[in-house]
Amino acid sequence: MIILKNYMEEVVLNLMDDILKDMDLCKCDKCKMDIAAIALNNLPVKYVASEKGELYSKLHILKKQFEVDAITEILKAAALVNESPHH
């Protein structure tokens, strides 16, 4: 079965808890999903379609830049959500 996945979603969700753990802001599920949504809306979509993830190996080369971009957007989104949480 072929799957379609936004690779940036995986990057953001994998990094988010580690980035937010030391920040003084609400970490309820609603706030965390708002942060993820805002960050992802500000990042380029990187879709991959693969049976066994062979495209993931090609994306590995760009992983560090994707992570830097994701961290930047997560921090900006966290500040925004912290100013006006919706929970």
Could you walk me through the main structural features you see in this protein, from its secondary elements to its overall organization?
This protein is mostly helical and 87 residues long. It has one domain. Helix 1 packs across helix 2 (29-41) and helix 1 (7-20) crosses helix 4. The chain has helices at 7-20, 29-41, 54-59, 63-83, and strands spanning 3-6, 47-50. The radius of gyration is 14 Å and the shape is elongated. The protein is 62% helix and 9% strand. A two-stranded antiparallel sheet has the order 1-2. The chain starts with a strand and ends with a helix. It is built from 4 helices and 2 strands; from the N terminus they run E-H-H-E-H-H.
Properties at a glance:
62% helix, 9% strand, mainly alpha
H/E series: EHHEHH
* Beta fraction: 5-15%
Main-sheet strand order equals 1-2
Overall pLDDT level: 88
Shape: elongated
Number of helices: 4
* Major beta-sheet overview: 2 strands, antiparallel
Give the secondary structure arrangement, pairings included.
Blueprint: E1 3-6, H1 7-20, H2 29-41, E2 47-50, H3 54-59, H4 63-83
Antiparallel strand pairs: 1-2
